[in-house]
Amino acid sequence: MAVPLSYNLRSAFVRKGATALTVSAIAFSVAVLVMVLALARGFETALAGTGTDDNVIVLRSGSTSEGVSGLTRDTARILQAASFVARDPAGRPLAQPELYAAFNLSRADGGKTNIPVRGTGPQGLALRSTVRIQPGGRMFEPGKYEIVVGRSLVGRVPGCQLGGALTLSNYTWQVVGVADSAGQAYDSEIWLDVEIFLRLLDRPGFSTVIARLHAPGELPALRRRVEDDPRLNVTVKTERQYFTEQAGALATVLKALAWFLAAIMGTGAVFGATNTLLANVSMRRREIGTLLAIGFSPRQVFLGFLTESLVLAVVGGVLGVALGYQCNGIATGTTNWSTFTEQSFSFAVTPDVVASAMVLAAFIGLIGGALPAARAARLTPREALRAL
Q1: Alpha-carbon distance 107 to 129, whole Å?
Q2: Among 37, 63, 182, 313, which residue is least crowded by beta carbons within 10 Å?
Q3: Do 128 and 122 form a contact (C-beta atoms < 8 A)?
């Protein structure tokens, strides 16, 4: 004889008030998880989705980010002339020494924040195929006090708009272009001429060199050759690998926070589901006795009530995902712990976030329904039919 699913499904919403509270508690737990995981996923996507495996970033050996790396001009020249570097149609190496620093700038909504500023050169834009200059603007001209600002800075930092002006190191820079990298890390940066930047900061050398590989499949051999060269003292990472590592620490903390908050709220939801189903078992003792008397086994009764709990949990989970999805695409920003600069990104409710949310809902349903289902299965027909 089959599990009495139709009976349990019809009975799931008999006590509408208690059931609504249970579903709501599960929904809010799931919604919190979705929103915080979407925050972490958006941050990861903005960084881990940046760049390509065809490009490499060369840093000083032991450096964890561009902000603490340093390369001499001699090292940069050696890397630009290396055989592994691809050439453009004019025969020029697709490699660009760059300088990376942070400037504490005012925000439009009050307060200040560290904005990443990248000194780059003629090949900087050509190397980043995912970045385009929005219509109406252009790339800065070398030797001039001109800057290109990332799309996410428009409206967030005063002066960061096409035709605007920004003060950096006591010099006024004209905004001649807005860079759009489709949500990648470059949307949060300011670009300017690297040689002017070096003079302003009184730096003897660059932070990194970014280069396009002539043969991307040879990266492991290239990495060993370059990193073993005593003249260079460098480490080599693909552009995508570098930005993925930048996302690691904060994304991990955000995910841990999401599950911590979900665990706290989920505990309350478990108690709510348990109380609701225990009350249902008490009210339906005669019905349970009837099921047992007509041939349903205790195991079938147990599975029926557990299914009832899972149905409530799934309904709560779907409602929670719908609530949490409202944050999808909302733009925000936070401090990148690796560079201590602000990284702009958008909440991203991705399929893996939805899957995690539904797993939480199912877990609440299983834990919350186990005790009531076990109590219903332990009843004997005589005890149940004698009740009430």
Answers
A1: 29
A2: 182
A3: no
